[in-house]
Amino acid sequence: MQSDAGGSATITATSHSPVCRSSRVPDFILHHYEISPFAAKIRAMLGYCELPWLSARTTPMPPRPLVDTLAGGYRRIPVAQIGADIFCDSRVICEEIAALAGRPELSPQSLDGTQRAFVDRAEMGVFFSLVGAATGWPLVRKVVADVGPLGLLRLLRDRKGMREGMSPDARPPQDGTTVVQAYLDDLEVRLTSPFLNGEQPGLIDFSAWHGLWFAIEVGGKSLLPAHPQTRDWFQRLAHLHSTKWRDISADSCIAAARDSEPRALPDSSDSDALLGQPVSIAPSDYGLAAVRGTLVASLPQRFILRRETAEAGVVHVHFPRARFSLEVAG
């Protein structure tokens, strides 16, 4: 994906060709749609790391038959896949990219307490305020071009239901315009180096960037003229992410899972009483659809569930602990 502060939300690549079925399945599959802000965050990070990846396009709203088969009904995008391991939520996906690229600064574990609080603010209250700021005809035209007029109506109904199901602490602020202005002012002060992380971008940069990407690139809003440091930072990130990607079909995604074994479980599983039991896991903030499976790993930062379907065989589905709730399956 490549864009700039005045361009449109498009995905470009240095290499783009359909994937052919072969004995070798490339490692990293991203299930995403073009205007998803959190998917933009992951695409930009993959490009910065110069990691090749496979693009499995999905729709902006359920039903998503392929993702449902692999991730058991998890409804948020993006989802990443490496063989028979499925990664839900961008926090877990960032951990995987950090490990693949040897860049620990891209992992949530690299953040100190102050940075973590900033990222939480950027990806909750500020993010939803920026999504609200993006509302307008440029956004409507992009959605209609992607899913058609009826798809737009379905998307609006879907997002309305998602908002109504939000936990109180996840609800968008009442005065989104004030929140966005304060955020831009804060970024302008923080940007004393090329990136928030210093000379090279870190997770804090990509987390602070993707909500602005949605408002500016997808919503067509002009937010940065009065914030030159933030504008330059935004453009640096926007131009980092030229990368190699290829399309992959749904059948090939299923084959990648079916023809692989989940990777070995970490040795650091704790003594969680639910290990080996049927459980249900769901986000605790928004998009609250639950996934069922058998808990096979309970780690300091993530849960791993075992699921089995006739189509994909056995898969391990990874979730972060933060902002997710785990309970015995009813």
Structural class: alpha/beta
Bin the helical content.
Answer: 25-40%
Mean of pLDDT: 89
Shape estimate: globular
Supply the number of structural domains: 2
Instruction: State the strand order across the main sheet.
Output: 5-2-1-3-4-9-8-7-6-10
The low-confidence parts are 1-26
CATH fold-type name of the largest domain:
Glutaredoxin
- Please, how many helices? 10
CATH class of the largest domain: Alpha Beta
Q: What about the largest sheet?
A: 10 strands, mixed
Beta-strand residue fraction? 15-25%
- Based on DSSP secondary structure assignment, what is the total number of beta strands? 10
The helix/strand series, from N terminus to C terminus, equals EHEHEEHHHHHHHEHEEEEE
Radius of gyration: 19 Å
CATH architecture of the largest domain: 3-Layer(aba) Sandwich
Q: Give the CA-CA distance, first to last residue.
A: 42 Å
GO molecular function, one term: transferase activity
InterPro entries: Glutathione-S-Trfase_C_sf, Glutathione_S-Trfase_N, Thioredoxin-like_sf
Organism: Parahaliea aestuarii
Protein name: Glutathione S-transferase family protein
List the helices and strands and how they pair.
Elements: E1 29-32, H1 37-48, E2 53-57, H2 65-71, E3 79-82, E4 85-88, H3 90-101, H4 113-123, H5 125-133, H6 137-164, H7 176-190, H8 203-218, H9 228-238, E5 245-247, H10 250-258, E6 278-283, E7 291-298, E8 302-309, E9 313-320, E10 324-328
Parallel strand pairs: 1-2, 2-5, 4-9
Antiparallel strand pairs: 1-3, 3-4, 6-7, 6-10, 7-8, 8-9
